[in-house]
Specification:
single chain, alpha+beta, D-amino Acid Aminotransferase, Chain A, domain 1, D-amino Acid Aminotransferase, Chain A, domain 2, nine-stranded mixed beta sheet, 25% helix, 29% strand
Length: 281
């Protein structure tokens, strides 16, 4: 597929990035992943907000408004044939000499990548507790950054591609999935780990919490042991590509129901899939 790199659309094989880009040398870069529905990038404003907050934290000077981002997506989508896809907007620090510099970066490398959306497994996924603990954020909050080895190392523990690996913190609290946030329901209360556990503040996580409040579910965010989750009636994971995915079992132990998860998914599908949709979480 074609990609967008620093203002130009080109074949992926033609793209070149300097070996002195500090996104490559030191992991100084952040990204957002999202999908389109009928050509519209869903929750684009929320993704850009998180991107800008992360760039500020990293000292990378770059901004992109929603119209500019939507135009990039439209142009790349058209260049790749117009079929809805999975998109990754990536901003790395840019070129600088070898060494650690405190000064901000003002000439970043900006890429927009697209790939085909994969068919989601019918009926949900299984979960597996990982032995590797979730690493702690490098600063006060977890960024969606180039530092992804903890996720990759966790993925290596999971043999089945249809299973989501689930992290605990080093203290033993439920954290998040390798590529997802996690929720569970018991007695009309929706539980999810607090951001204080060091998890990513997922865009879909925020939307699900909003939908759950509107549906009448009680919301609890906190520190939970895995034994508390395993007592749930139902559980599910979320991300911007897969949406809401029921967990059928974790480590072989099944859940009684997915009724309220299905209701949340129905509510999610009713949210307008327009770039002009104003997210009020």
């Amino acid at each position: 597929m074609k990609l967008w790199l620093n203002g130009s659309i080109m074949e992926a094989e033609e793209a070149k990035i300097s070996p002195f880009d500090h996104g490559f040398l030191y992991g100084l870069g952040v990204f957002e992943t999202f999908r389109t529905y009928n050509g519209q990038p869903f929750l684009l404003g929320s993704h850009l907000k998180r991107l800008h907050e992360s760039l500020q934290e990293m000292g990378i000077h770059f901004s992109l408004n929603i119209t500019e981002a939507a135009d990039m997506i439209d142009n790349l989508l058209e260049a790749n044939g117009g079929e809805d896809g999975y998109f990754r907007l990536n901003v790395s620090a840019g070129i600088r000499d070898i060494g650690l510099f405190p000064e901000p970066y003002d000439k970043p490398t900006v890429m927009l990548l697209q790939k085909k959306l994969m068919t989601q497994p019918a009926g949900g996924k299984k979960g597996q507790w990982l032995t590797l603990p979730r690493n702690t954020p490098e600063t006060a909050i977890r960024l969606k950054s180039h530092h992804y080895f903890n996720n990759i190392a966790g993925r290596r523990e999971v043999a089945d591609p249809g299973t989501e690996g689930l992290f605990l913190t080093k203290e033993g609290y439920v954290a998040e999935g390798i590529t997802s946030n996690i929720f569970w329901i018991k007695e009309d209360t929706l539980y999810t780990p607090a951001l204080e556990t060091g998890i990513l503040a997922g865009v879909t996580r925020s939307l699900v919490l909003s939908l759950a409040r509107k549906s009448g579910l009680q919301i609890e965010e906190g520190l939970y042991l895995k034994e508390q989750l395993m007592q749930a009636e139902e559980a599910f994971i979320t991300n911007s590509i897969q949406e809401i995915v029921p967990l059928t079992a974790i480590n072989g132990q099944g859940f009684k129901s997915s009724r309220q998860t299905s209701q949340l998914l129905e509510g999610y599908k009713k949210v307008p899939k327009s770039r002009l949709y104003i997210e009020e979480f």
